[in-house]
TrEMBL record:
CDD domains: WHTH_GntR. Keywords: DNA-binding, Transcription, Transcription regulation. It comes from the Bacteria. It comes from Amnibacterium endophyticum. Residues 11-79 form the HTH gntR-type domain. It holds the Pfam family GntR. This is GntR family transcriptional regulator. The keyword Transcription applies. InterPro entries: Tscrpt_reg_HTH_GntR (IPR000524), WH-like_DNA-bd_sf (IPR036388), WH_DNA-bd_sf (IPR036390).
Length: 116
């Protein structure tokens, strides 16, 4: 599993981890039954605090994407993959439309936050 964190992003590192695991599951890069790295191992590889990864894993657990058990680790159990694929397609179309209008990603993020 490959996760890239962007410093200075509007999203926290934990939010970036959550988003990338969800995207990986929607694209089929991460499949049901796959074990995610331990929080300690992922934190070390990303250069972040282990509690950041634990927050991300807890969010994924609450969303039904992973099962998290002491001693067993984090295992992908699903989530609503078809709905996530549809959402990703919609987001890609939104980004493309924004680009045609000359709206940069930072501006688009601000617009989206203003709506929600």
């Amino acid at each position: 599993m490959l996760i890239h964190l962007v410093e200075g992003s509007a999203a926290t590192f934990a939010e970036q981890i959550v988003a990338q695991v969800r995207i990986g599951a929607a694209r089929g890069d991460i499949v049901r039954g796959e074990r995610l790295p331990s929080a300690k191992d992922l934190a070390e590889s990303l250069g972040v605090n282990m509690h950041t990864v634990l927050r991300a894993y807890d969010s994924l657990r609450e969303a039904g994407v992973i099962d998290l058990r002491r001693g067993r680790g984090a295992v992908v159990v699903g989530g609503d993959v078809p709905a996530m694929r549809t959402l990703l397609e919609s987001v890609a179309a939104l980004v493309e439309d924004a680009g045609r209008l000359g709206i940069k990603p930072g501006e688009l993020s601000t617009l989206v936050k203003g709506i929600g």
